[in-house]
Each structure stands twice: as C-alpha cells, then as structure tokens.
Amino acid sequence: xxxGRGASSGEKAGEDLSNSVLYxxxxxxxxxxxxxxxxxxxxxxxxxMNELLATHLERAQDDDRVKVVVLRANGPxxxxxxxxxxxxxxxxxxKKGARLPQSVxxxxxxxxxxxxxxxxxxxxxxxxxxxxxxxxxxxFSYALxxxxxxxxxxxEFARRQARIGxxxxxxxxxxxxxxxxxNRGMEVLVTGxxxxxxxxxxxxxANSVVPEEQLDAEAMRYARAIAALATDGLMLGKRALHQYxxxxxxxxxxxxxxxxxxxxxxxxxxxxxxxxLRERNTLGNKGAWSxxxxxxxxxxxx
Length: 302
Prior knowledge:
Elements: E1 21-27, E2 30-35, H1 48-62, E3 68-73, H2 88-91, H3 102-119, E4 126-131, E5 134-136, H4 138-145, E6 148-152, E7 156-158, H5 173-180, H6 182-191, E8 195-196, H7 197-202, E9 208-210, H8 215-227, H9 231-247, H10 250-264, H11 276-297
Parallel strand pairs: 2-3, 3-4, 4-6, 5-7, 6-9
Antiparallel strand pairs: 1-2, 7-8
Helix pairs in contact: 1-3, 3-10, 5-6
C-alpha cells in the first residue's frame, strides 16, 4: 500500500487516469505494458487502474502475434502499492458511519483479484516483470505474479499491508509462499519488512539484478529470447504451469480470499493495538504510516 497521499478515485479527484497504464507493441512478438503514474510513484487507484491493467493484459492475450509481455513502470519507482487515501472497501462504496453489505464486498474483491490474476498468473503469455525503486504492496504482488523477474539494484520489495492488520493474509499468499519459501514468505508477509533485490536473487526469485539504467535492456534481452520460441509451445508451457498451480490449490484459494478480505473489515482492535484506519483519521495517511512503520523499524524490520 502506498505510504503517501494520492487520489482515491480518478473521477472524484478530477484525475485523468486514461493513460495511467500504457500498452505498446515494441518489437515483433513483444509488447510492453507500463504503469504510468510516476508523480504518485505509480500507486494504484482502485478500481480504475486495476481495470485498465486487466484490459491491456487481455489485449496481449488476444493478440496471437504477441508471445511475451514486459510489465514495467515509468519513473523512479515501479509501484508504491495501492493508493491508501481510500482503502479498497471504501472505493466499493463504504462511507463513514455506514455499513457496506458483505455481498458487495465479496463480489468486488473477487473482481479485483481475478482481474489481476487473469492476465498474469492465468494468462497464456509469458510475463516478465521489470522493477525498480519501490515495489510495494500491490506492486510486489504484480512482481511475484510474473513468470520472470528482472530487478534493478536499487529495487526494494515489501508488503506493508500486514502492518495495518492483515498479518499474513494476502490475496497472493499461495504464489508468495511458493516463490519465497514457507518460512521466508511468512516472515515477509507477517512483518511487512523490506526485501532487497539481491536477496530475491539469492533466493532464486529474481532472475537478474542490474543497474537501473540497464533494466529495460535486460528485460528486452530476456523477452527476445522468449520471442524466438514457438507460439504454440509457449502456450502449452503456460498451460502446464497452470495445471501445476491448480494442483497446489491456487485457484481454490482465490474463493477464500474474496471472503477473507471482507472479514478483515470487521476486525476488532484491542486498546493496545495500532488501528491504522483510526490513526489515519487524526494523523493523515503519511503520519499514520510513519508512526506504524516506526513500531517495526524499532525491532529491526525496516
């Protein structure tokens, strides 16, 4: 989740998000999808940017000429996570002093999860993530959902949502544990700590780590190698991966995730527990995050 203040909804804030995610076929068989909100560190405005990204991913899936997708971002940061001026449930219609029906929450969360996974995890095209700077929250989810990951030396990954109360619950928990390992994955998901690019390389998660100025070229080097392979063979390979993930229960977990997220909105914080949403009302988004992160940094979990 983004730790800065940004627009909660493109329309309400008067922000034009039509170009916040870009699509371009850059070479034969290679398309590039770019997060393009650098002034807000590419923080994702839900649901506008989620839907736009899903549309572009679907476009790549439907183009038989495209074999590989490079998911990248403009600016110094790949993605600061979800824009938390409003949390997702607020964008679904929750208002202060009112209750939102659980049916609405479950439907909307399923749509949000499925829109991301359809073109990444369950897509038929190979997706390469090219990540620099801050890769936080939903941005980390995007990175883990890619088939291959290229990171710049200054890239830092984290799931700060844990700290506002989610703990290890995550819509992408299965893929996170599969790629990070059970113990390491739980540590990252529970504490929300920062993971450096080189750590991910050492863990076998990042395929390559290069200086930031070489990031795009390195991603294209991988993309060109993939583009040299047979279209049908690449799709068969992805379908084989899907079968493996189904066997692990990945798709079944998605149903649980759409139920568990609404349950989170009914958590009861004890008097000695940090209630991010309450603190945000008095300190503002940035102030609430600073106070929360200090609790963990004091224990060595930056």
